[in-house]
Amino acid sequence: MKATELKYLRPHLASVCRSVTAASVALSGSLSRGEARVSNGRILSDLDLIPVVAVPEDAVLARKQLAPVLQKLADHYTITCTAALTLEANFLRVRHAGYVTSMANQPFVRDPLGVRQRLDAREDTAADPADVLPWLAQPVTYYLAKAGATAPEENLTKAARAALRLVQAAGLRPDAPRLLTAYVPADPPLTSDARRGIAEACVRAVVDAAAARHLTLLPSSREFLARTGSPDHAESPHETFHAVRDRAFLENQGLPFELSAMTARPTA
After folding, report:
1. Section 223-241 average pLDDT
2. Do residues 91 and 252 lie in contact, with contact meaning Cβ atoms separated by under 8 Å?
3. Which terminus in the chain has less CB density within 10 A, N or C?
4. What is the largest CA-CA distance in the chain?
């Protein structure tokens, strides 16, 4: 995807998604935030969509309608396209989840269900740190778990950035700021000791924030800490990631990973 195509992205998405009637479709991820990675005039970030369905039974039809749309977008922009089908009840309730807070003010590019109207009509109340901070801890443990299964440097970077946001929001001072500072992807590969140090600093950020603010962490974060901090959990890193991922999808999307997640890559 060329960087110059960004200004036409939303109108194009609205046009391509006209065939989707079983879900309202919102733009999420770095493209929604205006923080996409760019190199030599091309977008390197994925195109992330959040299709919102009214009830779980609508997910099967929505997936059928979305599959050709995602593939068309992947081929048109030569970019990986993802979708995470989400229950409307979850979308409106989990207002502090990362995929919600990262969206633009008007995220929907296709809205046959009228979700935007209900979102605008929702009464927002003052955010309680006890409600917000567990959602900031969630991506730290999620990306730590993912780093154990795939792309360790990329996912450790994401975990470190999330950990910095957490300690700042919690009013804590990280004891290892150097380890929690995101490195430039072009840097030389991290040594195993550096990876371990970053992961340990991220875990300390979660544990310290939870203790200092008396937080009840979300189930996915508790799952990660239990599996990595107890000899009773001797599963492989992949098993740990799948367990954490499955809990995170239920927290965020209200649907199992297998029913929610979709990916389309450019046709070779």
Report:
1. 82
2. no
3. C
4. 52
Cα 90 from Cα 240, distance rounded (Å): 24
CATH fold for domain 3-124+254-264: Beta Polymerase; domain 2 (3.30.460)
**What is the C-alpha end-to-end distance of the chain, expressed in Å?**
15
- With pLDDT > 90 as the criterion, what percentage of the chain qualifies? 54
| Cβ contacts of 226 within 8 Å, gap of 6 or more | 233
Domain segments of the chain: what residues? 3-124+254-264, 129-234
- Opening angle at CA 117, ends 36 and 60, nearest 5: 70
Counting DSSP H helices and E strands in the chain, the numbers are 12, 8
Return all residues near 189 (Cβ < 8 A) that are at least 6 apart: 153
Residue pair 155/147 in contact (Cβ under 8 Å)? The answer is yes
Residue 39 and residue 10 in contact, taking contact as beta carbons nearer than 8 Å: no
pLDDT band at 187 (very low <50, low <70, confident <90, very high): low
DSSP code string of 195-246? HHHHHHHHHHHHHHHHHHHT----HHHHHHHHHHH-TT----HHHHHHHHHH
- The pLDDT tens digits of the residues spanning 194-224 come to 888 888 889 999 999 999 999 999 999 999 9
Cα→Cα distances 240→147, 148, 254, Å: 11, 8, 20
Q: H or E stretch including 267?
A: none
